Amino acid sequence: MRIVQIEDIFFPEAGYQINIVSKYWVKNGHEVIIVAPEVEKLPERLSVFFGKENIAERDSQYEKMYGVKIIRWPIHAYISGRAIYKGGLMKAVKDLKPDVLYPHGCDNIGCMLS
Q1: Phi, psi for residue 11 in degrees, rounded to 5
Q2: Residue 30 and residue 60 in contact, taking contact as beta carbons nearer than 8 Å
Q3: Which tens digit of pLDDT belongs to each residue from 93-110?
Q4: What DSSP assignment string belongs to 89-103?
Q5: In the beta sheet, which residues pair with residue 75?
């Protein structure tokens, strides 16, 4: 099964639900893809603990270690606890042909689109 997760914030080192369930879904034979915002536009208060440095390398290490693909999508801004994704996200998600779409921390997918 292909599981596509959409997240408002993702750091590979974190212990968030998405970090934990993703690697176990892969261990159980599923293909897992995380769509997360670019970190450059995240507010400092959200990135201070894990930092924004070398995120592509850190994502790559997580992908290699756990078999989870990470896609960083551009955002307009991060407002009121939500990533406001730039256009094209819905098409990109549809093109991934998920069996399961799991948006974490979002009221609905529309809240992420401009």
Answers
A1: -125, 130
A2: no
A3: 999 999 999 887 655 555
A4: HHHHHHHT--SEEEE
A5: 85
Q: Are the C-beta atoms of residues 11 and 108 closer than 8 Å to each other?
A: no
Cα(41)–Cα(50) distance, rounded to whole angstroms? 14
pTM: 0.89
Q: What DSSP character marks residue 81?
A: T
Question: How do residues 4-41 score in pLDDT, each as one tens digit?
Answer: 999 988 999 998 889 999 999 999 999 999 999 999 88
Can you say how many angstroms the Cα of residue 13 is from the centroid of all Cα atoms in its chain?
13
Q: Report the alpha-carbon distance of residue 110 to residue 106 in Å, rounded.
A: 9
H or E element that contains 53: none
Beta bridge partners of 77: 84
Task: Using only the alpha carbons of the chain, give its radius of gyration.
Answer: 13
Residue 110's Cβ-side half-sphere holds a number of Cα atoms within 13 Å equal to 0
